[in-house]
Amino acid sequence: MTTLFFIEHANGQVSDQSLKAISATSQIDGDVHGLIVGSDIDSVVAEASKIEGLSKLMHVDDDSFNNILAENLTQLILNISEDYEYFLAAATTTGKNVMPRLAAKLDVSQISEIIAIEGPDTFIRTIYAGNAIATVQTSDPKKVLTVRPTAFKSAAMGSSGCEITKINAENMPSISEFIGEELTKSDRPELTSAKTIISGGRGMQNGENFELLDKVAEKLGAAVGASRAAVDAGFVPNDYQVGQTGKVVAPELYIAVGISGAIQHLAGMKDSKVIVAINKDEEAPIFDVADYGLVADLFQVLPELEQAL
Amino acid sequence: MKILVPVKRVIDPYVNIRVKSDETGVETENVKMSMNPFCEIAVEEAIRLKEAGKAEEIIAVSIGNQSCQETIRTALAMGADRGIHVLTEEKIEPISIAKILSKICEQESPGLVISGKQAIDGDNNQTGQMLAALTDMPQGTFASKIEIDSDKVKVTREIDGGLQTVSLNMPAIITTDLRLNEPRYASLPNIMKAKKKPIDQKSPEDYSIDVTPRVNVLKVIEPPKREAGIKVENISELVEKLKNEAGVI
């Protein structure tokens, strides 16, 4: 049996999320082949070919794959699917967009965001936003999986590259078109991949006060998030939201400021390695999950925190 | 144009989840149920398109046990025109749901299917993409903006790190993300009116779909509990602990 792993890249580098997710393949028997797409990406292809565990890397060198459309990438993988039993990708917005489409084309189930591999057909994943952990076994002949990157360590890079072959994009469906992309221009990391996150809740009182968090985030190289209460109150846009209906994050350090710790919010951040809570209400449930709690007025201590870093 | 909106009944997002002690799943008996939040956004978007004169009819579909009728009624009370309830007691997987929906698409020929990007119980995030595959329609997943322009629909998608815009030939499948809209509450008169709107009852057999699960849930457990840590007195103690004890800054 052979595994196909879809490797993503951005800004001339293999994506961190792919590097982490691909290490899940070390727990599956058999060869691992990589697939990477895009034109003028020879240096990324060379880098990707060194990922430990890869025995072959297929590269589609085609302008139409500089921006990925689910319809086309699915067809591309389908074209070569006969040779593979496992199909994996990181659970990024691209992986989540493409892998279910591929699974349905192969008439199999897809298993989303696995956090561990128990056996050749048995996987562990979270459900209910991490409030329960399910072990599932599939009876499908082909396994299509997305892998939660935060659950795996980055794959090592070998000193020499594996075999690289070029494949062509054939039979592409022309039913969708890429129009444009507007990437958030920020020196800050993105919430789902940030190593440190500082989030504000209703206790921030208004949107302007989020600047206090921005200043601390600047010092820490952190992303800024928010609780649903802060989003509902209109302090910050919805894409800040950490929680069951927002983003699920698991950074090394999560600092919750003025957040009471509703179940909604906890579901989105309780897998963080270290949690700090700053809240003036010492009864706030956030303290039940915090490694370090500080009962204090956030308006007093946030500037102090910024100074101390 | 018709818009088809699949809606799912899930445990209310504000309810504390309890894992069953025999590790077979999550307790759903005597628990408050609601429409999946992402499905509410899908219903709302369909209604807005209808209000803007872009659509004539909204059909809400739910697949599951008898109680799913309530979820369809909620969609009808918000403003959907009629419902289809596919009754099954089986724990039905995304691939089977997508197959049933693809048959409904054959019969109803909607110009758009708008579904939630994921249900907050299984967290699968698959059904819309699978339906798109089975019907060979293009897909605009994780939508935060939808603009219909004659036979194409422009979808702005929430992707890691920003926004992406794609143009899809219609008919197309769209899955909703949080920022697309804020769903309305159904007014009392509309709740009353919804009781008179038709719901067609079907079964998976009517569509000749085998819904036997392919994925067997071996066990469901609670995640490891986090222990409350310590309280620090001030910022300097906090920073010292984070540096020297936790090693995270």
What does this structure look like?
The complex is a heterodimer of chains A (309) and B (249). Chain A contains eight helices and 17 strands. Chain A has helices spanning 16-22, 42-48, 70-79, 93-105, 210-220, 228-232, 263-269, 298-308; strands at 3-6, 9-10, 13-14, 32-37, 54-60, 86-90, 110-119, 122-127, 132-138, 143-147, 163-166, 176-183, 196-200, 223-226, 253-257, 274-279, 292-295. In chain A, the strands form three sheets. A nine-stranded mixed beta sheet of chain A has the order 9-8-7-10-6-1-4-5-11. Chain B is α/β, with parallel strands linked by helices and 249 residues long. Chain B is built from six helices and 13 strands. In chain B, the strands form two sheets. A nine-stranded mixed beta sheet of chain B has the order 9-8-7-10-6-1-4-5-11, sandwiched between helices. Chain B has a two-stranded antiparallel sheet with strand order 2-3. In chain B, helix 2 packs across helix 5. The longest helix of chain B has 15 residues, at 37-51. The model of chain B has no long low-confidence stretch (mean pLDDT 96). At the A-B interface, helix 3, helix 4, strand 7, strand 8 and strand 9 of A face helix 3, helix 4, strand 7, strand 8 and strand 9 of B. Strand 9 (132-138) of chain A pairs antiparallel with strand 12 of chain B, so a sheet runs across the interface.
Shape of chain B: globular
Order of helices and strands of chain A: EEEHEHEHEHEEEEEEEHEHEHEEH
Number of helices of chain B: 6
> Main β-sheet of chain A, in a few words?
9 strands, mixed
What is the residue-mean pLDDT of chain A, rounded to a whole number? 94
Structural class of chain B: alpha/beta
Shape of chain A: elongated
As residue ranges, the low-confidence spans of chain A are none
The chain pair with the largest interface is: A-B, 92 and 77 residues
**Strands of the largest sheet of chain B, in order across it?**
9-8-7-10-6-1-4-5-11
Quaternary state, please?
heterodimer
Task: Estimate the helix proportion of chain B, in percent.
Answer: 25-40%
Task: Give the DSSP E fraction of chain B (strand runs of 2 or more residues).
Answer: 25-35%
What does the average pLDDT of chain B come to? 96
How far apart, in Å, are the first and last alpha carbons of chain A? 51 Å
If helices are DSSP runs of H or I spanning 4 or more residues, what is the number of helices of chain A?
8
Percentage of residues in strands of chain A = 25-35%
Number of strands of chain A: 17
